[in-house]
Amino acid sequence: MFTQLPTKSEEFNAWTWEQIAPFYTELQERPLSQNNVHQWLSDWTQISRLLWEKAARLRVATTQDTNDEAAEAALNQFLDEIYPPLQVAENKLENKLLESGLKPDGMEIPLRNMQADADLFVEENIPLLSEQLKRSQVYNRIIGSQTVEWDGEELTLTQLATRLEHPDRNLRQRGWQLMAERRLQDRTPLNELWAELLPQRHQIAQNAGFADFRTYTWQLKKRFDYTPEDAAIFHQAIADLVVPAANRVYERYRQKLGVSTLRPWDVKADVFPFELPVLRPFTNTDQLAQISATIFYQVDPVLGQYFDTMRQEKLLDIPNRKGKAPGAYCINFPASERPFIFMNSTGNGSDIRTLFHESGHAFHNFERNSLPYLQQQSAPMEFNEVASMAMELLTAPYINKNKDGFFTREEADCWFVNHLEKIILFWPYMAVVDAFQHWVYLHIDEAVDAANCDAKWQELWQLYLPQIDFCGFEDVLVTGWHRKQHIFRAPFYYIEYGLAQLGALQIWRNAMNDQAQAVRDYRQALALGGTQSLPALYQAANVQFAYDHQMVGQMVDLLETEIEKRLN
């Protein structure tokens, strides 16, 4: 029967649930034994890969053009007509395998994850989860439509932010205020969207038998190796050890600018210093991709080949444009065994960092796509982000033009110092985002009122990021949570970045001693997919999964030492 399935996703995309359902019925009815379990898993993988690629391509289309009504309608049709019965069918197969007692090789961790999903599954949540996905498109549409007129030209806020990397402070202030005013125009619709999302999330948790959405999400995200209390330990380590280091970064930057206090137009994305002097290391996105390919080949020839495959098969959507969703991501097309990178390049040095990051995710997908069963490929996000963040650092030896990179030696040092400083500055911001969400989902009745969210965000901001002076622009400060898409679209997905940065820095530390071995360890860990626990995946990369004062302190010392070398 499974030989009748299309071999290419393009042929499958038009299939309805009526065409798909018989394959799930056959898998559900097929007797399961030690002798046939591997074929059964292979058949399940075959149909699942086609379905998840269909879903991925539909989501990509809605982010490439947030005004494409046909793309949004196609995604909504999938969410209405295929997603609900698919969730039921997948749950039945998971239960069938769990109840069989069979434990195929390489499936210990996937079986643990299936049990967690089975324990969460309740049919009344399916329409609520579908609606949550639809609401995320509303957020994209609101943010994607934010444009302003600047010197007679209509620009997205991402494009304008690039224009503001300029030594003229008055120009930066004028542009920042223009952006801030435009964002505040959407304060009411975003608050209204929030008021819809939050009670629905609480209902999802209660339907599944959980007291709060935080506990529900911890299981949903398979966080078996650390607890909410551990997250608080990490937050405290950041407050004690990283905030003072961040203060030193901001003070250097304040002195460099020659200003009395750092104002919000002196930084970008609310927290990160502009790259001054402004570096324009490439002239177009084709050049960005070409030079990046050269660098990846030097990191590892196989990784270079992976990236060239993506270039040749048009699996990169790099430029920023009006109507394009914000941010950047890498998504996997499992049936095609190919990743896809989406980003918003505007021609500055930070685009290089973004492309390196998303390419790390792409390399992870290439490596784990070779695992036989789809259920083995899903690694924990706390390790997925190691794949991306480590690539930002493993490329460092090759970014200067002597190695056919982007920069002169002096520019390379300047750019990389900025990158290392951003790592320090990110952790306090991450703590704000993560701690905010812990408060939200433990105080749901208060948090549904956006005014209370504004107050909590301001409180946390002043604790972790007191260095930036928002005097006179308090409305912009308190609505900072509006500008973090994860809060709206992917709740509790943010601490992963902070934890993974600790793993990535350890890989970089290993690479400074033996780059080739560090890359081999890195690729070995990527190839394991989700077949090992989170600590075991870190161990395979020859690093430690830890987030306490000792580990955070070691990494802060490493960063400050390397920054000092390049500044002198």
β-strand percent reads 5-15%
Mind summarizing the main beta sheet?
3 strands, mixed
> Radius of gyration, Cα only, in angstroms?
24 Å
> What's the overall geometry?
globular
- Quaternary organisation of the protein chains: single chain
Description of the structure:
This protein is mainly α and 568 residues long. The protein has a domain at 2-104. 65% of the residues lie in helices and 5% in strands. It is built from 25 helices and seven strands. It has helices at 9-12, 17-29, 37-64, 69-81, 83-100, 108-120, 126-144, 157-163, 169-184, 187-207, 213-220, 228-257, 285-299, 301-312, 349-368, 381-394, 409-442, 444-447, 450-464, 474-478, 485-489, 495-513, 515-526, 534-540, 549-567; strands spanning 147-150, 153-156, 267-268, 272-273, 316-319, 329-333, 338-345. A three-stranded mixed β-sheet has the order 5-7-6, sandwiched between helices. A two-stranded antiparallel sheet has the order 1-2. A hairpin with a 2-residue loop joins strand 1 (147-150) and strand 2. 43% of the residues are buried.
Q: Briefly, what is this?
A:
The chain is mainly alpha-helical. The chain has a domain at 2-104. The protein contains 25 helices and seven strands.
Please give the structural blueprint.
Elements: H1 9-12, H2 17-29, H3 37-64, H4 69-81, H5 83-100, H6 108-120, H7 126-144, E1 147-150, E2 153-156, H8 157-163, H9 169-184, H10 187-207, H11 213-220, H12 228-257, E3 267-268, E4 272-273, H13 285-299, H14 301-312, E5 316-319, E6 329-333, E7 338-345, H15 349-368, H16 381-394, H17 409-442, H18 444-447, H19 450-464, H20 474-478, H21 485-489, H22 495-513, H23 515-526, H24 534-540, H25 549-567
Parallel strand pairs: 5-7
Antiparallel strand pairs: 1-2, 3-4, 6-7
Helix pairs in contact: 2-3, 2-5, 3-4, 4-7, 5-6, 7-10, 8-9, 10-11, 12-17, 12-25, 13-14, 15-16, 16-22, 16-23, 17-19, 17-22, 17-25, 22-23, 22-25, 23-24
